[in-house]
Design goal:
binds pyridoxal-5'-phosphate; Aspartate Aminotransferase, domain 1; 39% helix; Aspartate Aminotransferase, domain 2; 15 helices; five-stranded mixed sheet
Amino acid sequence: MSTGKRNSKQGISTRAIHLGYDPATEQGALTPPIYQTSTYAFETVEQGAEYFAGTKPGYVYGRTRNPTQALLEQRVADLEGAEAGLALASGMAAISATFWTILKAGDRVLVDKIVYGNSFTFFSKGLTRFGVETEFVDLSDPEALEKAAARPFNAVFFETPANPNLRVIDIAMVSAMARKAGAVTVVDNTFATPVLQRPLEHGADLVIHSATKYLGGHGDLLAGIVAGSEQQVKDIRMNGLRYLTGGTLSPLTAFLVLRGLKTLELRVMHHSKSAAAIVDFLGRQSEISNISYPALASNPAREIYQRQMTAGGGLICFELDGGITRGRTFMNALDLITRAVSLGDAETLIQHPASMTHASYGAEERAKHGISDGLIRMSVGLENTEDLLDDLEQALRRL
Ligand SMILES: Cc1ncc(COP(=O)(O)O)c(C=O)c1O
């Protein structure tokens, strides 16, 4: 595929719109076509054998590669500063394909104590069934990491900002410690996106996205991405994707994510600006407490935030005085803001992690890991900020 208008000096939006595509190669089509095919014809049996053997580049079968996916992979890899990327059917497909590939029975993985509920279940109840030892560690605490790293480990996984409570973790610190131990650092960058944070620049080896969220951006698809070195990504494609999970992204969905990417920077900057205004409003409400937002002056990890991220993003967490009983009344009183899980969509979404996205932790684990039962998570959308503030205000008045 042509490298098109690639130029590392070009900005994020320019690359997200143009990189890797030249309309002249596709009958002048402004928008990259969808290669809606499951298999590819070989001119000769010998050519097919060469493609299969990898001695000549060429497409063989849609489970492992497709030109529409390839463009998406190239663009996201470039935005993340990675050599290569791999698109998969969901964020969980990206996480599972990656760890099925890099770990084997007898290995040990360190996972931050706060991650998305199904990632938690994958590491605590999935991988462990196959002889991998998982240890949940507070990766925001260098001493806890050092203690866990006293025994050999093979990989470390974390989200920053973390789902649901937006803890910020020092990517450079964790990556350096993992490197010393010969372990692979994998960062889930779903919440920040490459617009706000690029984990590989801070020393991580692999970066993962639920592209269902900001990369797709419109709440109409599921997709996942992993990006890193050529070799690592090739291993995940040829093992984790090809026969361990088979979690292939459809060409049509790859096209939709490419469409979403074109406005990624614009959207993320708007989400962040609107979220900052809402955080400011919530901070002035007497019945709201424990507001978490990475860019808050009171964030204990503010110094790390400033080093790693360029804005706070679109997610906010908070609690209502009176706990989740009042929290439910408040959420049920919202008119415009929609009660739904997921995030990164045009619509502002609100949910209760303890009974929804993080129910899989179980009450005891949530308490141990610091996910409070009163916590409410809001993904600020792209509506006009004033309308969102009006909705929050009327719901608070109805308490
Ligand atoms: C941080 C994070 N990573 C991964 C996932 C899983 O992604 P998907 O739903 O696309 O499988 C989610 C889903 O909410 C998430 O929030």
